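Schema walk-through. Below, the input block comes first and the output block second. Nothing else is stored per chain. Lengths vary across the set, and this one has 340 residues.
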Amino acid sequence: MPIRESHLVRALEPFRGYVLSTMIFTLQQSGLQDEFAAGTTVDALVTTRKLDRARLTAMADYWVAAGLLDRSVDGVLTLTDLARTYEQARPWYEMMVGGYGQTFLALGDHLAEGTGPAPRRGGYVGSGSCGISMHDSLPLLRKLLAEDGRDYRRLVDLGCGSGVYLTELCADYPEMTAVGIEPDADGAAAARAWVAGQPTADRVTIEQVDAVRWIENTEDKPDLAVYAFVIHEVLGQEGEEGVRRMLTKLFAESPDLTLAIVDIDLKSADREAMSQPLAQAYYNAYLLMHPFTSQRLETRQWWEKLFADCGLRVDAYDTTDPAMDSTGFCVGWLLRKADA
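--- output ---
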């Protein structure tokens, strides 16, 4: 018996969302969104941008039908309020569609033991993550540091992504200099590009190197270190002993260090936590792809036991501003040596 249209529409709603998310990302990343914000036509874009007419027409027709563009009677295309609303969430699309879009398509091929990590695009992951951080983890980090009240002079961001933490914290601390450590080539390039355009660029350097190698070989003695969504990558790729080794080396070289860690509290098995709207819209997918990309999330309690086992104490703990993210998934700690 053929499927009824009403049932088919409901069954295809996830597919609609899949294509829509990729087309929102394409609109944002192609540079066309700025053109449409000012108002333009397919003819003008074909001429000025040297685009394929048939393909651009198909895209424009899709965006109009999806409510992202309006088309006037004379063919002028303009951005809608709906598209501007999606623009506010650009970093989420950048990370999850640009960075992890191919990951989700490859999950089934990487389910078997020994199949290795699913692919991802490190540049988009890093820049998207740092863009998201402007909304959630950076305000959380600033709150922790403000309540701590110390005046920091030398910062190292171990796994700096696009470099946002470096430039923003240097803006908060006028005497601070900073170095960003980023092993991924695309991530390091994105960080250098970001830093170059910021007012604090003269106080920030980027090094493409493994974090442990930098700790072992540097004469730098930072008083503040940041691990923002990095420690779970070390755990996934080098195991618990790799994390212990990294923390031990870091504090052996800088015993008076303050270490700020921001990460995700693993709540995927908590039915009540996962029923929250933002958990359904974002965290459910975010938690899903981590084991497939050599990343290992753990619970707050698991991390705090590990910190204690490494001779560290938690001097401060908090979660994101509930007005922005009330799930409590994104958490932050300030750590110091227990005997300091």
